[in-house]
Amino acid sequence: MFTGIVEETGRIISFEPGNAGLVLKLSANKVLGDIALGDSIAVNGCCLSATFLDKESEEIHFDVLEETKRLTSFADLEVGCLVNLERSLSFNGKVGGHFVTGHIDATCQIEVFEQQGNDYFLRVSIPEDLSKYVIMKGSISLDGISLTVAEVTNRSLAVWLIPTTMELTNLSQKKVGHLMNLEFDMLGKYVESLTVGKRNAVSD
């Protein structure tokens, strides 16, 4: 479980086939502080388990399934790209964003990304059948960043970004047409599951 508050950006060293599938190698600093092999890290919002750590050289590796690559924006990752990193939530820690599971629901494409005054406006496309999970002023996770929905239609959602978010995440590298990982607020999905289940039970 995560909170969508990015701790730092890591830089991709390599992303290529290894002995056990795809291996993602990153350089990082802060997230290496108190983690151990097997611990979970959100990489652009996707929950991955650390398979190799070298704190001296500031390097961390993850095994990535082909299915994970296919269903996320990982297919677009290149050497030198920045990725958002967050360690899993500790029970004595702060929840500054919202509950994020690290399970990507879909990818979305950037339609508009522009500076307006001191802030930035970001609009991304969303699958029409999934727009029901988005509400005005609700929470959304884009590349692992907890954000508040400012606009929503059947085919898109928009958020506003402050300069600090631009500085502390990989958004400085994003452009129109780029893909981002999308995770909806799990509360909405639980409510749907409960209500649909109840209706099905009544109809049966």
What's the quick description here?
Helix content is 15%, strand content 42%. It contains three helices and twelve strands, in the order βββββαββββββαβα.
Mind explaining what this structure looks like?
- This protein is mainly beta and 204 residues long.
- The chain folds into 2 domains: 8-87, Elongation Factor Tu (Ef-tu), domain 3 (Beta Barrel), CATH 2.40.30; 106-186, Elongation Factor Tu (Ef-tu), domain 3, CATH 2.40.30.20.
- Helix content is 15%, strand content 42%.
- The chain has 3 helices and 12 strands.
- The protein has helices at 66-71, 163-168, 186-203, and strands at residues 8-18, 21-27, 40-43, 46-54, 59-64, 82-87, 106-116, 119-125, 139-142, 145-152, 156-161, 179-184.
- A 6-stranded antiparallel barrel has the order 1-2-5-4-3-6.
- A hairpin with a 2-residue loop joins β7 (106-116) and β8.
- The chain is globular and about 45 Å long.
- The protein starts with 7 loop residues before the first strand and ends with a helix.
- The model has no long low-confidence stretch (mean pLDDT 91).
Characteristics of this structure?
6-stranded antiparallel barrel; mainly beta; 204 residues; Elongation Factor Tu (Ef-tu), domain 3; 42% strand
What series of H and E elements makes up the topology?
EEEEEHEEEEEEHEH
Q: How many DSSP E strands?
A: 12
Main beta sheet? 6 strands, antiparallel, barrel
Strand content: 35-45%
**Helix count, DSSP H or I runs of 4 or more residues:** 3
Overall tally of domains: 2
Helical percent range? Answer: 10-25%
Estimated radius of gyration:
17 Å
- C-alpha end-to-end distance: 35 Å
